[in-house]
Every structure is written in C-alpha cells, then in structure tokens.
Amino acid sequence: MFRKHLNLDAVKYAAIMVAMMWLGFLLQHIGWFSGCxxxxxxxxxxxxxxxxxxxxxHGSLEHIFGNSVPIFVLMFLLFQFYPFIAKTVFLLGWIxxxxxxxxxxxxDIFTGEYSQVCIIGASGIVxxxxxxxxxxxxxxxxxxxxxxxxxxxxxxxxxIWGVLPEELFSNLAEPSRISxxxxxxxxxxxxxxxxxxxxxxxxxxxxxxxxxNYYSEKDDKLWQEYKENxxxxxxxxxxxxxxxxxxxxxxxxxxx
Length: 256
What we know:
Layout: H1 2-5, H2 8-29, H3 50-53, H4 61-81, H5 86-103, H6 123-140, H7 143-156, H8 180-196, H9 221-229, H10 249-255
Helix pairs in contact: 2-4, 4-6, 4-7, 5-6, 5-8, 6-7, 6-8
C-alpha cells in the first residue's frame, strides 16, 4: 500500500543530490577545489561559477552533515507532493538563489566595511525548498499541501532565524562564517516561486454537490447502489392490455 503511493523518483533525486554533495566534498578535500575555487564570490565575475558548484562544496563534516539531511527530506517532499513542477522549482530555485547571493554586495552590516567573501554550501537550496513547501501549501489552501506545510514548519521552523546575521543574537569573538545572505536569498526565491506556481499542477477536485444546478443519475453513487441492491423495485409492471369498449359492447348492453 505504501509503495503504491510512494514516488520512487522522489527518493532517487534526493539521494542523487546528497551523493553529489558528498562527492564534491571528497574532491574538495583531496585538492580539486582550493581556496575560493568553486565558491560564490559576490560581484566578482570569477565567482559566477559558484552558482553551480558551491552547493557541492562544504567547509567541514559538520557543515555537510547539517545540509545533507534537510536536503534529502525537503527534496523528497518536493518531488513526492509536487512532481508536476518539482524539477522546475528545484533547478530554478538553485540558479536564482545563487545569482541573488552573487548580486548582494559583501558589506559588513555593522561596520560598513567591504570585504571579499567566498560562499559555499547547499544551505541556500535548503531555504528555497523549505520556504517553497511551506508557502505553497498556504497559497494553494489545499489540505494535502497544507499538511506538508505543517510538517516543514514543525521540523524546520527554526530556519526563519537564519535569514538574519548571527551577530544579532549572540556576541561572537569573530565574525560568523554562516552565510545569512544565502539563507535570505533562498527564502525570498522560495516564497516567490510558491506564489508564482500556486495555480500550477493538480486541479482542485469538484464534487457533485458543488454544482447545485446540475444532476446526473449516473453520478449519484447512492442511487446507483440502491438500484443494484434492490433490482426488484425496478422490474417492469406486467403489461395491461388497454380496454376496448367495442369488444365488450354486448356485455355492457346486458347490464343496462
């Protein structure tokens, strides 16, 4: 029963993405990517390739572990419940988020100093998926999708704090290495796509009682079941020959 409703593509695509992240992490730590190679470098032409490569690169085991689980879970939910637009949302969200991060000027919001930063990791995609899944259910106002929204809010609701600099909530000895710009960009793109694609895909099912001026006996399941269970109620009455007065004329005269 479970396999009947499980979209195997949802598991496949989620597993492929996580596997590619770990492959990128391995290549990174054997020397294929060093320094800012493969990272998003805001406003630098050299950093544009990071839009495509940075989700596969991570600074530590803790970093990649922290992204692997939500990427798998959120991608699974996306492809399981939104198969009709999942690829578009995932790929478009990935590229637009990376480009928006690249456009943001690397300025320290506290000091106003301009500093070059190298941004790596898949957290931007995590935020795209989480915010899309949550707001898509809200915008569609469909019970199935709202259930997905509640699941995302329950397990990943704390992500909302990641769209702001960590320095706002704690006194750090040194600047945070967490890219709140990626989180904010992912959240913005996720919400925009949830709104733009709110009418895409599955059509809302309308039941017969939603059409007060329409009635079809074939659509009335209760009536059809009654006919099947009580066929004797629908047998034709024996044919009654129509009376012909002329044939009984003699009999009628005698009775007068």
